[in-house]
Amino acid sequence: MISHASQRAANSDRIAAEKQSQWLVTAFIASGIIFMLLPGTFLGVWNLIDISREQTLGSLSSAWLQAHGQAQLFGWVGSFILGIGFYSLTKMQSTLTFPARSGWAAWVLWTLGITLRWTAGVAAWHWKILMPLSAVLELAAFVLFYRSVRRHGPKSSAAGAKETWMLLVAGGTIAFLLALIVNLGAVIFVAARSDTPALPHVFDQQLILLMVWGVLVPTIWGFNARWLPIFGGLKKPDSNHLRCAYGLSIVGLAIVFLQWWAASAALLLFVAFLVVEALHVWEPAVQPAKLQGVHASFPYFLRIPYVWLVISCVLNVMAVRLDQSGGIWGASRHAITVGFVAGMVFVIGQRLLPAFCGMRTLWSPKLMLWSLLALHVGCALRVTLEPLAYEGYWRFAWRILPYSALVELAAVTLFAWNIFATLLQPPAHLRVAASQPIRGTTASLTQ
Ligand code: HEM
User: Fold this and answer.
1) How far is the CA of 418 from the centre of ligand 1 (A)?
2) Ligand 1 mean position to 215 CA, how many Å?
3) Which of 41, 57, 117, 334 for mutating ligand 1's site (highest number of atoms within 8 Å of CB)?
4) CA distances, 434 to each of 64, 355, 429 (Å)
5) How far apart are CA 172 and CA 178, in angstroms?
């Protein structure tokens, strides 16, 4: 029988581990948001204004374009994945300890690596050393994360069967490791052979697809399979269809490296519809959504990103035949990175992160609504206007295009503001104790 004393010790270990993980996830989320805002979006807006002024994508340095993409994919979303991954370890019942040392070492290496990569790309300052160094630091950080997950993560059940959502998240984690290894090889090659700190164009596009379809998309599907029935009240996912969609998406991704663009695009379009069906995202909910602490529009914004996923895949199919100047590819990439990925991170993030980062409540549900509205309006403007302008179908589109970037900048600023304001307020239970008025309730935030 377990004595009261050892039960108490176990509880206090658990609380200590929970607190350590909350600090760490807060650090990853804060640095991720800073990467999103300045090196990511601000540079993206600057790039788009420049492209619109010159009226051609070719006017801009590839290194600058890639620095923006790296800051968003690895700096922003990558930091969120690492932070939430470390945090989730405390929720696995297999351990009472939290790998705090590995976690903080990973945060330092990752943040430094991303910063050096961006500096090397934008300033071209000692880039032949900084680019490979940054890739080594990023890989080292990820290896620390990966080892912690393997040691402290969920143990398979007796039958060895993993739930589907875990399978997708595990697949995304392995693809992340692969992307960082490929990235290291690529920057060593570029440092040895090239005159500019930019990856060759086709290879760069393949690496982006690996990151987007190999890492971000399956990770989102995995977390959606786990959380949408709980938070959105949706029907439980169809596991077989989801696994089938994931398998096909891997095939679609793999053949991109053989440059079978048309076959890949057709397959990914089919996959997008299959996932929509498997997750039941466009079907009516079977129970009420959990709206505590968030804006009442939450269930709608959970579904909209899947519209962007399908639009992105349709544009991808069109791009194979019609794209001449990068406008249709760009619109497709934007639909998936901004509409699907950022759309989902904004909506789920504002629901879950306040609780993960120290049992807080979201600072302002109204700001959540505005950030989401601005994001989708900005994305719609950009995805519509980019093919028209870049491909020369409608010259006037060049004039309106920069405004799409400003609307998106407003969206990310509102999101960042809401999260930072949330982090700066005391945890919900302390606020209740001090009888301060709180916005929303804390109940079931962590359910
Ligand atoms: C929010 C405002 C954003 C603006 C104004 C913006 C702007 C741009 C621009 C001008 C390009 C150059 C290619 C093109 O014209 O299509 C680009 C490329 C790219 N963007 Fe964004 N972007 C934004 C958000 C994002 C987000 C949220 C992500 C990822 C989560 C992202 C990922 C990328 C990637 C991967 C590329 C390709 C870079 C490369 O060619 O290596 N962007 N973006």
Assistant:
1) 23
2) 17
3) 334
4) 49, 19, 9
5) 10
Using CA atoms, how far residue 169 sits from 18, 162, 214, 313, 440, in Å, is: 22, 11, 10, 22, 30
Provide the pLDDT confidence category of residue 121 given band limits of 50, 70 and 90.
Answer: very high
pLDDT recorded at residue 446: 38
Structure tokens at 444: 């079931």
- The average pLDDT across 47-67 equals 90
Q: CA–CA separation, 388 vs 399, rounded Å?
A: 11
pLDDT at 318: 98
- With a 6 Å cutoff on the Cβ, whether 412 touches ligand 1 is yes
Q: Which atom of ligand 1 is nearest to the CA of 60?
A: 12
Helix then strand count (H, E) for the chain reads 17, 0
Over residues 278-303, the pLDDT tens digits come to 999 999 999 999 998 899 999 999 99
User: What residues contact 57, with CB distance under 8 A and at least 6 apart?
Assistant: 51, 325, 326, 327, 330, 390
Mean pLDDT value across residues 187-210 = 95
**Which of 23-27, 46-50, 97-101 comes out lowest in average pLDDT?**
97-101
In 3D space, the residue among 311, 312, 316 whose CA is nearest the CA of residue 256 turns out to be 316
Q: Considering only CA atoms, which residue is closest to atom 35 of ligand 1?
A: 69
Mutate to test the pocket of ligand 1, among 337, 400, 412 (most ligand atoms within 8 A of CB): 337
List the structure tokens of 393: 């179908």
Centroid of ligand 1 to alpha carbon of 331 (angstroms): 10
What is the per-residue pLDDT for 444? Answer: 39
Rounded to whole angstroms, the Cα distance separating 392 from 59 reads 15
CA of 382 to the centre of ligand 1 (A): 11
**139: its two tokens:** 């890989």
443: pLDDT strictly greater than 60: no
Any ligand 1 atom below 6 A from CB of 315: no
- CA-closest residue to ligand 1 atom 12: 65
What's the 70 CA to ligand 1 centre distance in angstroms?
Answer: 9
Average pLDDT of the chain, as a whole number: 91
C-alpha–C-alpha distance, residues 227 and 233, integer Å:
9
- Alpha carbons 220 and 264: distance in angstroms, whole number: 20
pLDDT at 2 over 60: no
**Structure confidence by residue, pLDDT tens digits, 159-178:** 455 799 999 999 999 999 99
For residue 253, what is the enclosing H or E element? Answer: helix 239-254
